């Protein structure tokens, strides 16, 4: 199998330990995947979900990383990948009968937003 390299150049932003269920984050990331930078910023503003603010911060961070680290223009960026993964659990204990403790696992998530440039050419550093 040949190793195919993509000619797309981009940056990523990573949100760790977000205390929201994966389904609630995925309904936002599924909408912004493949959108341009400007459209991906506007879409979460009009959704009635709490996590939209977190996702729009990650989009801004990925665009700033692409601008500062690679010198890419924000108008040429699009969201190439938006992924939600499981992360560590917050472990708590709840008191139960006869002095016992019952473990409570509070799951956290990791969100990865990758933005690539759709302009092919030389990039000067």
From TrEMBL:
One of its GO terms (molecular function) is rRNA binding. Keywords: Chloroplast, Plastid, Ribonucleoprotein, Ribosomal protein, RNA-binding, rRNA-binding. It is found in: Plastid, Chloroplast. Pfam families: Ribosomal_L22 (PF00237). GO terms for cellular component: chloroplast; large ribosomal subunit. Its main location: plastid. GO terms for biological process: translation. Part of the 50S ribosomal subunit. The globular domain of the protein is located near the polypeptide exit tunnel on the outside of the subunit, while an extended beta-hairpin is found that lines the wall of the exit tunnel in the center of the 70S ribosome. This protein binds specifically to 23S rRNA. Belongs to the universal ribosomal protein uL22 family. This is Large ribosomal subunit protein uL22c. The gene is rpl22.
């Amino acid at each position: 199998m040949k190793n195919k390299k993509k000619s797309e150049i981009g940056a990523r932003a990573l949100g760790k330990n977000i205390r929201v269920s994966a389904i609630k984050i995925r309904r936002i990331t599924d909408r912004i995947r493949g959108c341009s930078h400007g459209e991906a910023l506007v879409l979460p503003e009009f959704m009635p979900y709490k996590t939209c603010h977190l996702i729009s911060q990650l989009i801004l961070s990925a665009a700033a990383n692409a601008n500062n680290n690679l010198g890419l223009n924000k108008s040429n960026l699009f969201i190439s990948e938006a992924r939600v993964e499981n992360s560590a659990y917050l472990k708590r204990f709840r008191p139960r009968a006869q002095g016992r403790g019952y473990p409570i696992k509070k799951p956290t998530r990791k969100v990865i937003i990758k933005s690539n440039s759709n302009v092919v050419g030389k990039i000067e550093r």
